[in-house]
């Protein structure tokens, strides 16, 4: 009897092990089928009801903190309203950390050697300090003038509808019936395509040689009067202060195989080197160059005035000495076509990064120097409006973006403040 019980226990354990083995073996297959299913739905233009849509896509976000007890449920909350007490406390903190000024001698040094400090910054951090700005197209849809959908469009779905019995599902089934391949066949095809891409992918050295060859061709063509890189493209974007390419490569991935050309510059030679050596850099659709916006007397642009559709100015103007900001915007406005636009985003007054600065870091007013020698200014809406309107540009957007950034692990909530603006060059008829 005991022998039979023991034998039964052994058989049960064996069955459990077999079921566990089968489940473990099926997991990769189910994951692959799930991935292919999502890809098919996207290809057919259908909304994946079981796929997370991530953060809301409304301008400046649409995640509102209505219940303070839920503050640690998300990493970011939008459109935060400050109380008068919070505003007064922030103002007091800024006045305290700006009460001790940097000496005049050091101010001159930081201004004169600004390029050296930024070069050291990019040598130290390479392209790992800032994240890629994939939010650009959500906040600045003007970067994609020929897009097939509205980046700010909200997709509404019927409530309490199962994907298995919804009209969407029947539409999907109808379209899938026309495709004579099963999920498994699609999965195999996906793997084969991935392997093919891996086999045919060129090395970084090959890419760099190709870029250099294209640059030499451009230099030869530039000898011809009137030629400049990107002349044959109908839509031209210029990013000022491209850094290591955190805006460049998200933009290039979106404009691939289109009639859009991207120019980008930085006055840090090392930053531009990081961009041009990146494997995604495409010299046939992008031209990166070293340029100092504050030294217009001795520097020129690789394109003529009045040829740019959109100028991207993101967290750049704040690093320029306030006395030169007006000159910089005046010059950029001349590069725009009539109707062209400057898309701007930068640090706002009383942002967390300003309130965290220690005494002895203030150069003057709201202009500071960080520990690494780089400088930063914190703007108000009124200051931005005055600079851009004085340059002859028309205000389209000028908002203070206040958000609550949350570290859910440390249970810390931090107030962030940014200024986001859009200024347009008037059409000729608007000038009269």
Structure summary:
This protein has 432 residues and is α/β, with parallel strands linked by helices. Helices cover 40% and strands 17% of the residues. Helix 1 packs across helix 7.
End-to-end C-alpha gap: 106 Å
Beta-strand percent range? 15-25%
Low-pLDDT regions: 40-57, 148-184, 194-205, 207-212
Mean pLDDT, to the nearest integer, reads: 76
The number of distinct helices, counting runs of at least 4 residues, comes to: 13
Radius of gyration: 27 Å
Structural class: alpha/beta
Q: Would you report the number of β strands?
A: 11
User: What does the largest sheet look like?
Assistant: 8 strands, mixed
Question: Fraction of residues in helices?
Answer: 40-55%
Shape type: globular
Enumerate the strands of the largest sheet in spatial order, edge to edge or round the barrel: 1-10-11-6-5-2-3-4
The H-and-E topology, N to C, reads as HEHHHHHHHEHEHEEHEHEEEHEE
């Amino acid at each position: 009897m005991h022998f039979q019980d023991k034998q039964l226990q052994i058989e049960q354990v064996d069955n459990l092990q077999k079921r566990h083995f089968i489940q473990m073996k099926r997991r990769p297959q189910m994951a692959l089928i799930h991935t292919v299913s999502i890809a098919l739905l996207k290809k057919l233009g259908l909304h994946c009801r079981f796929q997370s849509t991530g953060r809301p896509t409304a301008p400046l976000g649409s995640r509102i903190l209505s219940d303070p007890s839920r503050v640690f449920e998300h990493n970011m909350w939008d459109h935060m309203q400050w109380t008068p007490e919070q505003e007064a406390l922030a103002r007091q903190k800024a006045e305290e950390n700006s009460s001790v000024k940097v000496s005049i001698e050091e101010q001159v040094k930081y201004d004169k050697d600004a390029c050296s400090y930024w070069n050291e910054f990019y040598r130290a951090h390479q392209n790992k300090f800032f994240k890629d700005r994939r939010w650009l197209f959500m906040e600045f849809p003007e970067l994609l003038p020929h897009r097939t959908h509205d980046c700010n469009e909200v997709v509404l779905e019927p409530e309490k509808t199962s994907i298995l019995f919804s009209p969407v599902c029947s539409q999907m089934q109808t379209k899938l019936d026309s495709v004579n391949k099963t999920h498994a066949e699609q999965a195999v095809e996906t793997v084969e395509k991935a392997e093919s891409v891996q086999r045919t992918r060129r090395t970084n050295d090959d890419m760099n040689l190709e870029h250099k060859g294209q640059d030499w061709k451009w230099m030869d063509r530039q000898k011809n009067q009137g030629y400049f890189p990107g002349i044959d493209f109908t839509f031209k974007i210029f990013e000022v202060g491209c850094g290591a390419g955190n805006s460049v490569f998200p933009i290039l991935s979106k404009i691939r195989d289109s009639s859009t050309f991207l120019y980008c510059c930085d006055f840090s030679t090392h930053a531009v080197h990081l961009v041009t050596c990146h494997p995604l850099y495409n010299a046939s659709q992008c031209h990166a160059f070293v340029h100092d916006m504050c030294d217009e007397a001795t520097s020129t642009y690789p394109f003529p005035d009045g040829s740019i559709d959109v100028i991207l100015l993101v967290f750049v103007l704040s690093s320029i000495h306030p006395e030169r900001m007006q000159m910089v915007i005046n010059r950029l406005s001349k590069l725009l076509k009539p109707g062209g636009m400057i898309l701007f985003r930068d640090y706002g007054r009383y942002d967390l990064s300003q309130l965290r600065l220690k005494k002895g870091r203030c150069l003057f007013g709201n202009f500071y120097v960080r520990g690494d020698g780089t400088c930063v200014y914190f703007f108000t809406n009124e200051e931005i409006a005055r600079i851009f309107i004085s340059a002859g540009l028309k205000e389209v957007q000028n908002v203070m973006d206040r958000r609550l950034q949350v570290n859910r692990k440390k249970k810390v909530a931090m107030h962030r403040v940014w200024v986001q603006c859009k200024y347009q060059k008037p059409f000729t008829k608007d000038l009269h």
